[in-house]
Amino acid sequence: MLFVNRQAELARLDRFAASAEGGLAVVYGRRRVGKTRLLLEWAGRHDGLYSVADQSLPELQRRYLAETVAQRLPGFAEVEYRDWRTLFTRLAREAHLAGWRGPLILDELPYLALASPELPSVLQRFLDHDAREAGFRLAIAGSSQRMMQGFVLGREAPLFGRAGEILDLQPLAPRFLIDAFPIAGGGKWIQLHTAWGGIPRYWELAREVPGSVADQIAHLVLDPLGPLHLEPDLLLLEEIPPALEARPLLDAIGSGAHRVSEIAGRLGRPATSMARPLERLMGLGLVRREIPFGESEKGSKRALYKIDDPFFRLWFRVVAPHRGQLASGSPAARRQLLDRYWDGLVAQGWEELCRRLVPAAGEGTTLGNLGPWGPTARWWHGNQPEWDAVSASLDGRRVLLGEVKWSAEAMPPKALEKALGVLQARPAPPLPAELAKAEPVRVLFVPEVARAAEKAVTGRDALLVVTAGELMGG
């Protein structure tokens, strides 16, 4: 199985495992983000045990867990446990006698809690008394982000304040595409991120399909038999409670409705009913609220809602509106359908990738040496020229004004010369008062530059050309 990075998360879990007091670690994140792979890697380092729940009856769940524990505590599964409290009480006692401190990992805990609502309270008592006395280490994990947060984050949550580590596992950073696809190159890295985002399981599946990124999409997503053809529906269904009620909003946003009024109009609902489902989609990391650079997060009346996850953006643009066509069409017809939208999706994906990576530009890069940079956003207003990426350096001395250009091939001299001329002539946007004296740095973001085009920047003051390789650290 593919295992890329997660070194920071492993380091935190390792520190937790080294604690003499034991306690609780919590790991949660969306489907296929790599929780299981991370937890297996960690368990292997520390003589731990991994157990994953399903939707069986509580009696069966306890039997399955007892059989897992028996790998370290022989005879543990020879007893029928009448309830969870009995099981965990004996676990602490037997583990202490055997000198085994875990970690014991309970993956997909929400399934256990659905069948046994008392379980979080049982775990609370176990952690407060038995586990503490035995120095035992327990880790819980799950894909239902709302339910996992409900266990530990709210003040009324049964496990509130008891976790030594809480890891909200996010998609991998784009730069790790270089490790997973080492021969890709700038343009293809952008296409890979447009298709698969930072979800390692998608990367793993894509690596097994020869050919172009479009070939991967056709095989894994467009084909009704593909393993990712129904992926968004499965992810929404896996949330507890299911998030399928938010599915129509994703359909509306994916088809081009970005204002609350537009989304509500597409669905035939009042705009006032959109707040809760939009908030849930943002909490899942699937939708983001976008406002122009320099405007207040609370005060802006020009907010747009966009699908934030690259794979979901692809799926709701290409698959969702064309399910019947994909089911009845030939492979060639599916590819034609993808071709109709692909360049636009990649251009949008590259633009958003640039905004995301500007604040991460490190020292030693041209862009990083002029920063560090704060959050980066688009700027737009009426009919005035838009800016794809605007950011202020954290010291307020510079402001980045960025234009993002997508091309599948390395940009040749004439095209680069023209793009730089347009960038230099474009009027700067109005900036907040605190940036009025900031030095403007105009940046052209392109996937790759042809070697013969490198001289095009010479002699142009305060103009930078930044490629995907530099931005992604390759």
Give an overview in words.
The protein is an alpha/beta fold. The protein is built from 21 helices and twelve strands. It has a five-stranded parallel sheet, with helices on both faces. Strands 8-9-10-11-12 form a five-stranded mixed sheet. A two-stranded antiparallel ribbon has the order 6-7. Helix 9 packs across helix 18 and helix 16 (310-319) runs antiparallel to helix 18 (331-357). The model has no long low-confidence stretch (mean pLDDT 91).
The beta-strand count equals: 12
The percent range for helix content is 40-55%
Low-confidence stretches: none
Tell me the fraction of residues in β-strands, as a range. Answer: 5-15%
Mean pLDDT: 91
Major sheet, described briefly?
5 strands, parallel
Terminus-to-terminus distance: 23 Å
Helix count equals: 21
Any idea what the shape is?
Answer: globular
Strand pairing plus helix content: what structural class? alpha/beta
Query: Major sheet: order of its strands?
Result: 2-3-4-1-5
Q: What value does the Rg take, in angstroms?
A: 25 Å
**Which oligomerization state do the chains in this entry correspond to?**
single chain
